[in-house]
Amino acid sequence: MQRCAGDTSISIDYTLELLFTGLPMNDKVFGHLIDGEWVTSNEVTTNTSPSDTSDVIGQYAIGTADDCTRAIAAARRAATAWGRSGLEERKAILDTIGAELIARKDEIGRLLSREEGKPLAEGIGEVARAGQFFQYHAAQVLSPTGEAVDSVRPGIEVEVKREALGVIGIITPWNFPVAVAAWKIAPALAYGNAVVLKPAELVPASAWVLADIIDRSGLPAGVFNMVMGPGREVGEALATSPDIDAITFTGSVPIGRRIARNAIENMTKIQLEMGSKNALVVLNDADLDVAVQCAIAGAFSGTGQKCTASSRLIVEDAVHDEFVDKLVAAMQGLVVGAALDSATQIGPVVDSRQYQQVLDYIELAKQEGATLVQGGEAITLDTEGYFLAPTLFTNTTNEMRINREEVFGPLACVIKATDYDHALEISNDSEFGLTSGIVTQSLKYASHFKQYSNSGCVMVNLPTAGTDYHVPFGGRKSSSYGPREQGQYAQEFYTIVKTNYSKPY
Which residues pair with 312 in a beta bridge? Predict the structure, then answer.
């Protein structure tokens, strides 16, 4: 195992110099973290910014299945001792990680935005939220998790306990490279598990910085490991390993299903957060200014690259035209630009493949008969980047592919509904069920929608994108599989229940 130039003895100042100023990279390869050591691979990838493809962020190691196997073995060796570690030790370490993330939110947020493309304010906010995840689960470490239960048999005591699973494989997406990783890693460590993280290939810099913070927190070697690289090799090694006790994954439906098929061979516990095609319903009685705000934030924040984005806007016919006019006017005022520009409201699409995918869906919508009313074109700026105008189609139906398939970009479609019942029917008519929303002043319809919307998270007079870290998150149907994430509900995935019976004499 070869030590990387960036081992734990490297000065933090030098590391930040490399990461944040773009200074010479030719003698530095950012490596994997395996068993407490930073290690390189034979192959590296050059990480560039989607805001400016000439902006080289750094060189990052490309891992192999063998690297992943070594990381799993290290986690397995460390898991037992960490599972028996003191609660105050775990709490202190998680607090340390959370505090550093929050203290450095500006600089790390800048790196995240530079690498992934979201506007700077969103990047900073994501890092701060990641710190809050660690601090929340630090507090949860001291929350009681067991219970004493009366037996149906006299003289017998029953004790229900939760124990760590062992080794958790974590596979994270590129759209929230720090926050999603944090909301999986924090509870895994809090409940006494060891971790192997496989971050998305597109965002190695954000993953590396997070891993560096975790590594310096006082965590014993091997408890947390990170291997960068392609899903077809590193991810596959995680999903097929008999030494992994559970896998938590956020990403696409096809890959999630593949992971599920692989995991079941070893009876590995799985938690999958996958695709979406979220709907925002606008009723005739809605405050249209509120509706437009919800549509803008839900459909276009984060360049529409959120699993909670509302790409289907279902509008009752009486307010349809006025809503569209107001929405188009608001969209025309949105500033598309480089992620680090303070004026930017919509950043670039993450890479060339995603950029082309959105353009292809725009052409598909036209072919299906949808009417383009705003955007739909690539934008040329001073830098070479993947910039697209926020795009809106009208005259669409729920049967069109553009309203059935996840686009994952700054594109929304308006579907006209005849009444509330029709709108609810359209909203529920999807293979996905992550989030949904309704804009209305009617308590009757708001209450009915909350009860009968077939999604895991329901928003009333709020954007579909935007959730809290202390309550459960997840969807229904093809959007999610397995226990919920976040809040106290996280214990359902990261622990196993043991029921103890005893007779005192």
Answer: 279, 413
Catalytic-role residue among 273, 316, 406, 485: 273
pLDDT for residue 5: 30
**Per the structure block, which two tokens stand in for 58?**
């750094």
Asked whether residue 441 carries a pLDDT value surpassing 80, the answer given is: yes
For residue 18, pLDDT over 80 is answered with no
Dihedral over Cα of 350, 354, 356, 357: its sign: negative
| pLDDT, tens only, 142-174 | 988 889 999 999 999 999 999 999 999 999 999
273 catalytic? Reply is yes
How far, in Å, CA of 98 to CA of 80, rounded? 24
User: Both 211 and 85 in a single domain?
Assistant: yes
Question: What token pair was written down for 152?
Answer: 């149906």
Single out the catalytic residue among 68, 307, 413, 457.
Answer: 307
**CA gap 438, 458 in Å, rounded:** 8
Instruction: Quote the domain boundaries for residue 116.
Output: 63-274+481-498
Question: Smallest Cα–Cα separation from 278: which of 263, 290, 295?
Answer: 295
Tell me, what CATH number does 194's domain have?
A: 3.40.605.10
What element of type H or E holds 114?
helix 105-116
Please name which of 424, 311, 438, 324 lies closest in space to residue 365, comparing C-alpha atoms. 311
| 307 catalytic residue (yes or no) | yes
287 in the same domain as 235 = no
Phi-psi region of 168 (alpha: psi -120 to 50; beta: other; left: phi over 0): beta
**Cβ-contact 170, 194 below 8 angstroms:** no
The token pair that represents 209 in the structure block: 């910085």
Rounded to whole angstroms, what are the CA distances from 160 to 252, 462, 497, 501? 36, 39, 7, 9
Query: Which backbone phi and psi does 321 adopt, to 5 degrees?
Result: -65, -45
Establish if 41 belongs to a structural domain: no
Report d(CA 444, CA 61) in Å as an integer. Answer: 56
Count of beta carbons in the 10 Å neighbourhood of residue 503: 9
State whether residue 166 is helix, strand or coil: coil
How many domains is the chain partitioned into structurally? 2
